[in-house]
Write a structure and sequence with these properties.
4 helices, single chain, Rossmann fold, 9 strands, 160 residues, 33% strand, two-stranded antiparallel ribbon, 24% helix
Length: 160
């Protein structure tokens, strides 16, 4: 299996992907400093890519089975355009897995008394995420609850 951790940040999920199963893991982020932190965390068995997520297909040597994106879709200026590029990077039947913050009142997402996650007005419901991703040629196949703060939306590229 091959998977991309798109906008990998500090490598929290990259590390989990590496440890979860035998997979060819690509991790992409635009921020060099975050990639340095991610490399220290997840190791050198990952294919590290410093690039803009919107240019995804250009930086992969081959099409992949899945693209994973956590806590980022809400901040993308044109999420449908990004999803189109994700689609180009995927094999037929490939998955685009989006983890996002639930829309909640600020008091519900506090850690040690501090707000956690993006501002409420930036957050996307699963329906809003679907409205961004499906026009790029994906089908929503599942929404999973990821308590206490998140959900996961799994989209599939049709078999061609």
């Amino acid at each position: 299996m091959s998977i991309v951790d798109l906008c990998c940040g500090d490598g929290h999920f990259t590390e989990a992907l590496v440890n979860m199963q035998k997979a060819d893991v690509f991790a992409l982020d635009i921020d060099r400093e975050m990639l340095t932190v991610a490399k220290a965390r997840a190791g050198m068995s990952v294919h590290w890519i410093e690039a803009d997520a919107r240019d995804l297909p250009a930086f992969l040597p081959t099409k992949v089975d899945a693209v994973f994106m956590a806590n980022t879709l809400h901040g993308v200026p044109n999420p449908t355009a990004l999803a189109r590029n994700v689609r180009k990077a995927l094999k037929p039947g490939g998955l685009f897995i989006v983890v996002n913050w639930h829309v909640a009142t600020p008091g519900e997402n506090r850690v040690l008394g501090q707000p956690r996650g993006p501002r409420k007005d930036m957050r996307m419901t699963p329906v809003q995420a679907s409205k961004c991703v499906e026009p790029a040629g994906f089908e929503l196949i599942q929404v999973a609850e990821l308590p206490p703060y998140h959900y996961g939306a799994i989209f599939q590229k049709p078999e061609e």
